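**User:** Here is a favour to ask of a fellow structure person. Please take any protein you like and set down a full record of it. No explanation is needed for now; the record alone will do.

**Assistant:**
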Amino acid sequence: MRRKLFALVDCNNFYVSCERVFNAALKNTPTIVLSNNDRCVVARSNEAKKLGVKMGQPVFEIAGLIKKHNIHVFSSNYSLYADMSKRVMQVLASFSPHVEIYSIDEAFLELTNHSIDDATEFGREIKDRVFQYVGIPVKENKVALLSRHSGQCCSPSLMARSVGKSVSCLTRTRLHVVFRIIKPLSCLETHPQGVSMLD
């Protein structure tokens, strides 16, 4: 039976990454993006995360932290983020005509008809091309190849092989734990055993 193959691609700190594309001085600096009316943190650079900035945290709670560590703060620019997302999705479409856009920074690609010998290398190719063409980094451990066998739509055997990480098997994982796969692979949600993942 022909193996069904999908790729999950997730951009890294997307709003912050968009700001960095147009401001090189932000590279390797703590940076955050705020929600509507500048109330809460909706995106954080890795540097900001290390300083203890939490997702959804009200900005007034970290006023001292911002001043102490010179954290760069941006208001949300949704028109910019939407445009950058469109560019990312266009690059992903160069790998497959079947792209399921899950969110502004995340998508699934169907790769069933592709001949892929090395999943890790193929994941890196996706990651590198997105960065080369758009300037947006993709999470090193979130370019995953997902596969299942056709004719076994509700099989509990779903595999995800992540770039840069060793492969280990986690069995009997409930679907609500890995809810992100349910939308594009909704046929799996009725299976009582959940899914198995390789990470």
Q: What stands out?
A: Strands lie at 3-10, 31-34, 41-44, 72-75, 99-103, 106-110, 144-149, 159-162, 169-173, 195-198.
